Every structure is written in structure tokens, then in C-alpha cells.
Amino acid sequence: MSLLKVESLSKSFASGGMWSGVRRVTHAVNNVSFEVAKGETLAIVGESGSGKSTTARLVMRLIEADQGRISLLGEDVSGLKGKALRKKRRHMQMVFQDPFASLNPRMKIVDSVGEGLRVHAPELNGSQRRQKVTDILAQCGMDESVLERYPHQFSGGQRQRIGIARALAVSPELLVLDEPVSALDVSVQAQILNLLGELQKEHQLAYLFISHDLSVVRHVADRVAVMFAGFIVEQGTVQEVYKHPQHPYTRELLEARPVSHPSKRHAEGVEIVRSDEGVAESGCAFRLRCPFAQADCAGFDARLSDGEHKVACLHPL
Amino acid sequence: MKRPLMLAGGAIVGTVAILAVLAPWISPFDPNLINVKWILLPPSLEHWCGTDTLGRDVLSRMLYGARVSLAVGFVAVGIAIAIGVMLGALAGYAGGRADAIVMRATDMVLCFPTFFLILAVIAFLEPSIWNIMIVIGLTSWMGVARLVRAELLSLRKREFVMAAESLGVPAMRLVWRYLLPNAMGPILVSAVLGIAGAVLIESGLSFLGLGVQPPDASWGNILTEGKDNIQIAWWLSFYPGLAILITVLGYNLLGEGLRDALDPRLRDQH
Questions:
Q1: Taking CB atoms and an 8 Å limit, are B163 and A90 in contact across chains?
Q2: ipTM of the predicted structure?
Q3: Interchain pair A86, B168: CB under 8 A
Q4: Which residues of B touch A90 (CB under 8 A)?
Q5: Within a domain: residue B270?
Q6: Could you give the CA distance from residue B22 to residue B63 in angstroms, rounded to a whole number?
Q7: Domain extent at residue B163
Q8: C-alpha span between B199 and B69 (Å, rounded)
Q9: What is the DSSP string of B128-165?
């Protein structure tokens, strides 16, 4: 049984309103399905606007899905509300992208990190909670002296450690990591990624790792799902997807990735066209940008194939 | 020195507050002491701001009037902030139907010309300092409500609020510990500017005889007397008018200075 199972999740946003005349509907997430097993890392990659962060927020039930099911530990949580939902929140927690916006500037670290315990372990008294907070911060590489301080007194990397500690305080099984290192310096990125790796081993954590950085994803993930325009276009193990990309978009992404030396770049690299308008309204969303597009792509329903290495393409590479 | 105007505003506000508090000890005369030998004396070393038609010392009356102005300012704004924060928080946090109802009600109250609404209400009630405070408070919460709603709407999109939501923090705690503390800056600015408005309204009401009732002194009712004698006793209009001007200016300078100081985009300029 998988820890997290997401089936046919969809969400669209309407922009413009009564008065502006034009009403546009953006399909941020389209019929997205994936599973995360205990202790594994599934990465969701894609360019900005591909719907990966929306997917994270949908899974966390921070925004309501239009359609689809989210099951946690075999139990459907997509319809839960109020108290029942609050109880289930203990099992999944989120680490946010911007360490400068993700801590309450008016709360001491001890209170921010202890907040989850206040909700989910109300039997603890003040000093027991404080002890637990100290332990968790220590696991995240922060010592006792930080307890009485405020977020503005810390660097980005330190704040991200505190954010991780806050999420871990309630002993979740799943951490949703929304671009957890993309706002950090490269040297600090490595430290945070190592910390996440250690914590994963120690606590058997499952990670849903949202990122646009393919190098980072290759380093941390077991499996990867590639998103484009709200669709998952390819899904498989990191080795398979990186070595043998089957979807033209995945290949485009991999080739756009900076390499350590120019000589490592493919000699016959495909010309990459960047265009935000290059999203098709029907059929395969990528067909307008796809060098291999054919007439039947316009009628394709973007369904993922079955099997271990899934792809949503009529003419896979 | 950074922000000289804000400091000037703060100095004015502080001085007026100290004078008001110390009025019973520093007033040269009893503000209600009538003395027929002193009627309408011009400013002199003995009576710095002259005397009025009943021979009362204008400086002493103004010092006591400062107490009225400040009391009305603070209490009225306190009421307005309490109502505005509650309704604004309800609208901004609950959203949906509650938001629509609260904001349309706010729009409706905003449609009334406030001063005339207050006049009408005071006409039915007995004019007293308490009624004035309450009525001003009840008619000036709309700006605060809109401000708090807007702040909460934008704060709710911030990551630390989403983090609290994903931890399951209950709604009341979320509003009190996460949203309102981070909206304090704009609320404080609007309170300081609101005091200036309340002082003006109180003066206006007292000037029209619907505010603080004689013999109690208020800057507004000293002005009324000044109006009747403006050709023979300029000091009766000049000094209370100056006091109102300087006090309102002081609160406005302080409020706008605070606004700039609290706005991160303006923080490095001045």
C-alpha cells in the first residue's frame, strides 16, 4: 500500500471576472495521478507555471481540488473537513520555497516549531513541548540558543532548517518539499539536501519533491514525474527518465539543463524554442512546441501509458 | 537625523499629551473661575492667552480642553479600531458570504456623510463627552475594517500562514497569532491618523454646541465664544484654533511618518 496515492487530480483557476469582460480559465493541474511509497522520494519537475506547486498545495489540502482523490495511508482525505482533516494533517507536512516568508516574523522560534505539537500533542505541557522542540532543532542542526530568537535573526539556510524542524515536529510520514533549496546559495543547498537525506533515512520519510532543478532532482529522487502545462507527461525512475527520456518535452528539459562542460552537450542538440504561448488548448499540450508533432497529436487525450516508465505521447522517442 | 517630520509630529503629540495630563497642576488659574474684573483682557504676562467674556483664563481653559480632545480622540479611535479589526478580520479570514455581507454593510455606512450622521444622532441623545466618544467611534471604523480585510487577504497567501494551516492551527489562533500581529503596522498608522480626525470632529461638534457642554472647557466651545467676539477679542479664536491646528498636524505628521517607516519599500528613503 502506498503512503500517498493521488488519482485524477484537477484544478483550474478563473481569472478576470464580472466586469473585465474576458473570462479566462487556466487549467493549472490536469488529471494528475501518482503514488509515493513509504521512505521514497518522488520528484515533480517542470518549468514555472507547469502546475507543480499547485499540485503540492492540492495534496496538502491548502487549496481545494476540482476533481480527484487524495488517499493518505489508504484513506481518502480529499473530502475531509474541519476536525477530521486537522487530525490527518499530522501525517503530511510541507516545507516551503522562500525561507524568508515561511516563518511568522512575530513569533519566537520555540513557538513556531512548537506550534504543531500544540495542535497534535495537546497533552504535552510547556516544558515538555520545549524539550521536544529542542530535540527536533538539534536533529536539524540548530542548537538551543535559537529558541528565544526571531526569524529575522537567521540566514536563509538556517531558516530553512527551522522550517524543516517545524514540519518534522509532528512526526509526519510524508514531507511535501516545494522547491526547498531553490532560494538558497549553492553551498547552502548542498547542506540542506544532505540534511534532508539524513532525516529521510532516520525517520523513513517519504518526500514529494517539487523542483525545476534537474541536477538537484537527479541527486535526491528515486522516481520523477515531469509536468507540462498541468499534465504529467512522463513518469519513471530517475535512471530511466534521465537516460532514456521518451517524451519530447522531457528531452527538451534535459537538454536545457546546464552541464558542467560545454563538450558534454549533445552535438546535435535540438533547437529549443521558449514561448509561453506554446501551449495547445486541446490535444497534446506540447504539440505546438514539439519537433516531432504530427497531425494526430491534436486529437490525443494526453493519457499516460501503463507500466513502470509511463509516458503521455503518441510518438515517444 | 532620519525622518525629522515624524519626530516633530511625535514631539507635538507628546507635548500636548503631557500638558493635558498635567493640566490640574500647571494651570495658572481655575479654568471655571469667573472674575468680572478680568473680562476680555488681552494676552499679558499674567494671562498668557487672555481671558474670555466671563473673565476666565483662556490658557487654563485650553489646558483642560486638551484633556477633552485627547480623551475623545483615544476612546473614539479605540472603539473604531475594535469594531474595524473584528469586522475586517471576519471578512478577510472567513471570506465568501461573510465577506460579502460585511463589506457591503461597510460600503453602506460609508455612504452616509459622517459629520451629519453624528449631528443627527447627537441631536437625539444628550450631548456629553461620553456620547460623543461613542458616536465618533461608531462612525469611523469603516476605513479600519477595509484595511484589516485587505491586509488579511494578502497575509493569507503568505507561506508562514499556509504552514500554520497545514499544521492545523485553529482559526482563532491563526487570526490572533499569525494574521493580526503582522497587520499591526497599518492598523497603528490608521489609529494615529484617526485620532487627528476624531479631534477635529469633537472640536466641530463643540463649536456647534453639540459637544462638550459649558462650563466644561473644550477647544471647540472656546472657539464658539471667540466667533461672537472676533472683532474685539482675537485671542479667543486664535489660541484654540492654533491648538487644534498644531495637534491635528502633529498626529498627521506622526501617522504619515510611521506609515513610511513601516513600509519596507520606503524604508531607505526619506
A1: no
A2: 0.87
A3: yes
A4: 168
A5: no
A6: 9
A7: 4-22+56-262
A8: 6
A9: -HHHHHHHHHHTS-HHHHHHHHHHHHHHTTSHHHHHHH
Q: Is residue B38 part of a domain?
A: no
Name the helix (H) or strand (E) containing B80: helix B58-89
Cβ contact B225:B52 at 8 Å = yes
Q: What is the pTM of this model?
A: 0.84
Q: Would you say residue B28 lies in a domain? A: no
Residue count (chain B): 270
Domain annotation covers residue B240: yes
What kind and span of H or E run contains A45? strand A41-45
pLDDT-derived band at A273 (thresholds 50, 70, 90) equals very low
- 3-state SS assignment for residue A313: coil
The CATH number of whichever domain residue B255 belongs to comes to 1.10.3720.10
Q: How many domains does chain B have?
A: 1
Does residue B70 contact residue B20 with C-beta atoms inside 8 Å?
yes
Task: For residue range A86-122, list pLDDT tens digits in order.
Answer: 999 999 999 999 988 999 999 999 999 999 999 999 9
Exposure pattern of A68-96 as b/e (b: 16+ CB <10 Å)? bebbbbeeebbebeeeeebebbbbbbbbb
Whether the CB of B166 is below 8 Å from some CB of chain A: the reply is yes
Residues 59-88 of A with CB under 8 A from B: 60-62, 85-87
Domains of chain A with CATH codes: 4-311 (3.40.50.300)
Q: Can you tell me the distance from the alpha carbon of A83 to that of A86, in angstroms, rounded to the nearest whole number?
A: 5
Give the residue ranges of chain B where pLDDT is below 50. 269-270
Tens of pLDDT, residues A53-78 = 999 999 999 999 999 999 999 899 98
Cβ of B169 within 8 Å of Cβ of A120? The answer is no
